[in-house]
Write a structure and sequence with these properties.
With 144 residues, the chain is mainly alpha-helical. It contains 6 helices and 2 strands, in the order H-H-H-H-E-E-H-H. The chain has a two-stranded antiparallel ribbon. The chain is globular.
Length: 144
């Protein structure tokens, strides 16, 4: 049986969409739109809006709007970068960390509900497969 990579990609996207849709209400209770959540969740890994745009495959202008919204909501703070005084880096506030953690918990719970349909053995295999797919071709190590 042949498995089409595009079909697998589409199934994965559908799964992610279903999980996100199921969490929309909880995100709204936290004061977050879906894309704002993704930006919020990326702040610690990518300190600058341009890095967030690259990591999330979003237009820089859109990230600017999401960051502005997150700042206004008190979830993110802009700080002067001491290494380059012309740049502002982003920092999560305590409220932002709490909102991010609650949103991630909601996503994890919904994903776990879906994952419960899969045997523990298949979960281990799925994890192995996903790690293999994320591994850097040259090093065999997972890309972050």
């Amino acid at each position: 049986m042949s498995v089409d990579g595009a079909q697998l990609w589409t199934l994965n996207q559908r799964l992610l969409g279903v999980v996100m849709d199921a969490c929309t209400g909880e995100l709204a209770e936290l004061g977050l739109e879906t894309k704002e959540f993704f930006v919020l969740a990326e702040v610690e890994a990518s300190l600058y809006p341009a890095e967030i745009a690259t990591a999330l495959l979003l237009p820089k202008a859109s990230v600017t709007v999401y960051v502005r919204n997150l700042v206004a909501k008190g979830f993110v703070r802009r700080e002067i970068d001491e290494a380059d005084l012309r740049r502002h880096r982003l920092v999560l506030t305590a409220e932002g960390t709490q909102a991010r953690d609650r949103a991630l918990a909601a996503l994890a719970a919904e994903y776990d509900r879906r994952l419960a349909r899969v045997t523990p053995q298949d979960r281990v295999e799925l994890q192995r497969i996903l790690k293999a797919m994320l591994a850097s071709p040259a090093s065999g190590r997972m890309r972050e």
